[in-house]
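So, could you explain this one?
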Amino acid sequence: MNSSVLASLVPVVLLIGAGFLAGRRGWVTGGAVRDLSNLIFLLLAPALLFRTMSTVHVEQLKLGPVAAYFLAAGLIFAATLVVRGFNRTAAVIALANTFSNTVMIGIPLIGLAFGPEGTVVVLTLISLHSLVLLTSATLVLELAVAREQARQPGGERTPILRTLGRAFYNAIVHPVPLPIIAGLLFAQTGLTLPESVDKPIAWLGQAFGPIALVMVGITLASTAIGHQWRAALTQALIKNLAHPALVALLGWLLGLRGLPLQVMVVAAALPIGANVFLFSQRYKTAEDLVTASVAVSTALALVTVSVVMALVGSL
């Protein structure tokens, strides 16, 4: 097995395992799980997203290499909604099929495998990854929620434009897209955060990844993965293999070659990101399936990422 793959994935597996142990031992139970989820979603994630985007300058981004990634993600997301229907469960599963763990695993893995040039490419993707995928998913989820509420007995049917406006507003004024947009706007001013402000934001952001993965393990401890393993394996195979295969095909058709395409394919092969788990909790849907899928996808990535990295050399 590629040593860089092992070095990047083992810490993720260990953190999930630590959370699993904490859940089994009863160290975190009941309402504390929901409170911890709120802490991650409402405080730690916004800090990470704002700080990441606060140094991104739009004019410096090379968008060509990421086009194949987002085109593939969009096709898979849309296909999932077509197959499963337009509802919040389908939207969360579609996000699981397309959202990679680009920060915790992607940065160290691609840096080790492709060097500084590869790191620049993956950071360009990361600067847009959450903005495009999480904002789009939030908009779809808010529309789905509005549609479900309108279909309930006695539910108020509002005009489509009002529904779209409310969903768009909720998708922007939201703990995930809002800090992304705010950080991006701040970056364009050319200002920098004072160290006394930047340091606590950095600490909060650094806490996001480990705590989110521990949270996955805690939830996994109370999840009967036995009856979810087939569906979880399906999600993992779509994310770990179908997504990178489609990126490779579309990238080739778009004329991409060499390192930029290789980095995008490897990024697509990364396992499901923990943000999907937080979305499933936020919208109270498919929580057991997403928890199992994140765990299975991460474990399976020890093999599938190694295979993908062995094959991308020919691109």
Observations:
- The radius of gyration is 19 Å.
- The chain has one domain: 3-314.
- The chain has a mean pLDDT of 82.
- The CA atoms of residues 93 and 290 lie 7 Å apart.
